[in-house]
Write a structure and sequence with these properties.
This protein has ten helices and twelve strands. It is an alpha/beta fold. The protein has three domains: 16-94, Winged helix-like DNA-binding domain superfamily/Winged helix DNA-binding domain (Arc Repressor Mutant, subunit A); 101-174 and 284-316, D-Maltodextrin-Binding Protein, domain 2 (3-Layer(aba) Sandwich); 176-281, Periplasmic binding protein-like II (D-Maltodextrin-Binding Protein, domain 2, 3-Layer(aba) Sandwich), CATH 3.40.190.10. Helix 5 (115-129) links the parallel strand 3 and strand 4 (133-139). This is Probable hydrogen peroxide-inducible genes activator. Keywords: Activator, DNA-binding, Transcription, Transcription regulation. InterPro entries: LysR_HTH_N, LysR_subst-bd, WH-like_DNA-bd_sf, WH_DNA-bd_sf.
Amino acid sequence: MASPTNPGTRSRQPSLAQLRAFAAVAEHLHFREAAAEIGMSQPALSGAVSALEEALGVQLLERTTRRVLLSPAGERVAARARTVLEAVGDLMEEAEAARAPFTGVLRLGVIPTVAPYLLPTVLRLVHDTYPDLELQVHEEQTGSLLDGLQQGRLDLLLLAVPLGAPTVTELPLFDEDFVLVAPTDHWLGGRGDIPREALKDMDLLLLDEGHCLRDQALDICREAGRDEGAPVTTSAAGLSTLVQLVAGGLGVTLLPRTALRVETARNDQLTTGYFADPAPSRRIALAMRSGAARQGEFEEFAAALREAMKGLPVRIVE
């Protein structure tokens, strides 16, 4: 047997094949049995172990015509080789799981004016269709969600668009109309042909600053010709509180259709009215980082969500 090279002349790192060959020999202390276990010819196995000894600069085995023994250095290297091979196995399993769609963690950010009304559909879809997906939901306002997406804290967003963010790709899901919600005695209650211009002079109740629904409602009012200086009472952090203020006679508000049943069904102090076509509306979409590694998976998820949401009072965007 050629003696191992002096450590000072080593220039190569050991390969995984060399480590596997040596680990098999160390386990069986028999070249033929080791070769059979890893599916390698006996000469190739012997060559791999010799190459490992040369790369490491130590003798790992004591070979005779009758038996194979580990040298003291071989015993230490064998234990370390097994650790390395186990770690590589774990790495391969992790990579395989990452390649498999709809496995592992999905960190989904959702705006407050969407979460209570769409999450039941999202959670049911994940439970029934993607049981290996670990969904983590984060409810935040749009600005915080976008920061989280761009910093890698979140993977996917469910929110109103357009966002106007050049590094974000939007996957549209549906459009939904806004509905006027008013006290029971309001003159527009029950109507299905409300002109947008009716918003010009109403006491309008909106969400606090930072909610995209507030900005959307203000845009609708501006399109209706409402004066920029017209009074707007802002005193609600969520839609449930907003609806209670309406029921108390403090004004009217606009609700997206998906929120209507949840927020008004149990309050007999409210009435609703629908706008004439084209009704004011908003678009809801999934948003991801442009070029995301899971882009194909997210696009498939968006398609599944569109199908799951066909029973909602919305217009699906194909």
